Description:
Layout: H1 33-36, E1 47-48, E2 72-79, E3 84-93, E4 98-106, E5 114-115, E6 133-145, E7 148-158, E8 170-176, E9 183-184, E10 197-199, E11 213-224, E12 227-237, E13 243-253, E14 260-264, E15 278-286, E16 291-298, E17 312-313, E18 315-321, E19 328-329, E20 337-338, E21 349-359, E22 362-371, E23 384-392
Antiparallel strand pairs: 1-23, 2-3, 3-4, 4-5, 6-7, 7-8, 8-9, 8-10, 11-12, 12-13, 13-14, 15-16, 16-18, 17-21, 18-19, 18-20, 21-22, 22-23
Amino acid sequence: MKAVIAPIFVFALSICLASSCMADEKGVQSPPATHQAATLNHGPRWTRNPSNLIINPSHFSLPTGELGFNTSDPCVLYSEKTKSWHAFFSSNSDKLDKQFLMHATSKEATNGWRVLPLPALDAGAANSWDARTVETCSIVEIEVGPTQSNYYLFYSGANTMDGDDADVYSMGLAFSTDLQSFHRIDARNSPKKADGLLFDPVEAFPKTPGVTSGVVTDPSVMYQDGSFKMWFFCAAKNESGEFIDGGICYASSADGLNWQHQGALPTLMNDKAPGVIAQQPTVIYNPQSRLYEMWAVIDDPAYASYGIEGLAVGGYFHATSADGLQWTYTDKTAYDFTWDSTIPSENKGMGNGPTVVYAKGIYYLFYSSFSDQRIPTVDYPPFTWGLNLAIKN
């Protein structure tokens, strides 16, 4: 449940939980006029699914018995093996003061979603690197036979949930052969000799001297031409706690365990405002155009008072690349997909980065929103934080 990083010169990571970042209903207004009019500037427009919210967190229970609050940071897969859609999203428990990854399935992307009763991946063991939260996932399916696939669930995790610069997020991996039970890679297979752990912020910046801590999170992973490719948000700090590098990083791996890091990609810096960096990427490859496509969040302080402070966004920017490394923005000043406050399913705000799935010539964009629709009447905040879908051909 990552917050948007503010100016590049001031490193601030805020993680807002249900207990500490409730938006006051009276403080939710219409969006800033300068962005309200922003529209899609390339290709067909996105069409929102008329059945949004497709997953309403107020109508499923966590293993603790609490009603769901957030369905944030989704990662989504359509599996030919199961003939179903699978959505994984982070949801936090006030009772446990932890966050885990839930799993929902549907035969149709547009409706019929069912949240499974147990988490796909729980927070890690006590005192482990991911003991308090697992979140911001990416799911990859690799076929190993006519009836068998292996599933790689990449995620970020931390052993604090302070919501400030003290948080250090690292990257992890869990594995499944049936999409039902996921198991962390064990310490013997981990490059860091810790269950689940792949790499930490220091490793993400091989060419940046002086990195001592930071954040690696929001992975978007694909398996292509025999190797894994990962784009993810990265932020590096030096010994004095100063932000010294960051943005969207890239790494590749032959086995999903050992990664070769390129560091932050300079072409993904966005200059619509001084000192603002891109984050929360989702990447697909379009075989028709032979281009990689990315949607990313770029912080806009104008939305700080909407939805949940630090997590509300005005929309998603779009970029393309021939090699996955050198990127060109479609438009640096207008969103490809824009929050619409007049739509009931997102009338209290839009939050976090999306995930995009490209299947059979159709783009499926799954995104989180804040809404005052279908809220329980007892012991619940004035909005829900649900999952939505938009489609374009």
